[in-house]
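Worked Example 4.2. Consider the chain below.
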Amino acid sequence: MIISIRRLGAVSLGLIFLVVTFIVLVALAVNATIARPDFVSEQLEEADAYQFVLDDLVPALLEDAWQLDPDEFGFEFEENPLAASGLSPEQLAGAIRRAIPPEDVEALVTPAIEGAMDYLTGREDEVAIRIDAASHLDALVREFSAVFLESGAYERLMERELTPIFGQWVDEGLPAGGESSAWVAILRGGSGEEGGSLVRVFTTVATPEWMAAQVEGAGNKIVDYAVARSDTLAIRIGFDEAGVEQAANEIAAIVTEADAFDVAYANVVEPAAKGSVAEVSALPYGIALTRTEVLDAVRDAVAGDWLDAQASRLAGDVAAYITGQTEAFTTTFDLIAAKTDARRALTATATTSLREGLRSLPDCTTAAENAAARTALERELPPCIPRDVPVADIVAIAVPTIATSIEESVLDRIPDTVIYTEQDLLADLERDGGPDALLALDEIRELFREGWTYTDDDLRADLDGDAFDLIQDGRLALSTGYVLDVSDESAEGLQDGLDEARNTVGFGSGNLWIPAVIAFALLLLVGFLGGRSWRGRLAWAAGVLLLSAGLLAILFGPVAQSTSGDVFDEIRAEAAPDPDSEFPNTSEALVDKLVEVAQSAVDEFAGNIARNALILAVVGAVGVIIAALWNPIGVALGREQT
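Applying the procedure from the previous section yields the following structure tokens:
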């Protein structure tokens, strides 16, 4: 009865021994795999992960990017700009591979992974990450620039995307269909295409070579900021002095191409004259000049080389202002010479009217009528023609008086000089194009004067605090090195998660002797409880060891190998991305590789348990054999065994 109870206790302890042995083997496997700083790196290397990133993941990511909708890029593109560039995903993937080959990716990533593993295993109390990628990022910018230039991508992007966008921008601020004399129509030019002639200005200065320089410069600025070679981010896309001057010359040419009357007369001279001349100007002798007659005379007087010269000067001043070369301008039109010609023309018109009036008058019939008519001739038409005064004499008498009146009552009202400033231009633009025209002008001036700028302040404003802090952490990792502070309250849950991971991984790398001693003690107890003699005790201890280790060897050996494939296939199927997602190819490739790496790591972990369990099973089997051959062995040794 007692022996039965003892052996029942031995069996119970054997079950406990199985559990403890499992714990010991798991701890050994952790120590041999996960707890090793280079385990993850080795798994990635064995899986050709770095080759995969450049040969499969990057091309898949680019392939997905080529399929994105145009509005995903944040601009009013007609089509996906990557596709519009004419580049293929393979070309960009090749550039990335040349800038950062697989072995360099491995050299960059491995120290960071091993540093994280040192923290998880408790060898270090902090995670220090430094990725010395400055030279590779510089090479990446150079490679991208070369690919875009050699492939003609900039030309295609200019033609198919950027030029239409600029045309739409012009149309929104300076819509077509205005009056022919309006500044909006003048600046748009005679082109009926989208954006009018102003698109010509854009394509003149924003050449593919200019775009290439801007993109490369922006890339270099981003890299300098990313690797902390610069404390601030300051990207500027703009034009140098030569480009601004070229744009001004093109705008001046567009303005000059318009009729001089549209530019100078209709916008400057006529408004000044029209505002100064009465609707009807009364002259001596009953003559009247209409405003139209006066304006026609002024227009004829300024026509020709004089007006062309004034229009050319105004075009230059307006162009300099539009391109931001000047903050203000004043163009002066001297009308003195024009007023002299206009006086002659108006005098001729008035003389013609006088002659027509005289021809309608009857001859004086009485002496009284004759005397009254002669007296009236000094300022006005008489009621009749004096008998002794020829019509020619009357005209000769009246013309000087009429000419003096034209000078004093008509032309003197028109200023000798007319000044046209940027304020007049703004008022005219607002009149012709509304507030949008002024907004468009401000944006054009800012584009040429300051360009498009993007700074770290803009970046901070565009991102929430956590995202911006993450970028700053990345900058540290790429420069002096980043130390992860797991106690930072902003990283919610991070500290608890990492502490739990450290405890789990640390189980295999520390205090392993405790479960080993427990397992050994349990095995001794099993032997002493189950056996009455040394042979029996050895048989029980070795048998329990053989059964426990053998069972674990089978479970983590053949059984695990036969089931792991199906399990991970199911995991792969469950994690398969939605084909309608934005990056289906990328997700599919990444999931497949992650599952592959995870399966390899699990197989390695299980294999380690199986190998160690098999070793213990062999030890147990040897013990069982010794127990079975106890007497023959004793005889051979010259001792009698019991």
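The chain has a mean pLDDT of 81. The first helix runs from residue 2 to 32. Compare this with Example 4.1 before moving on.
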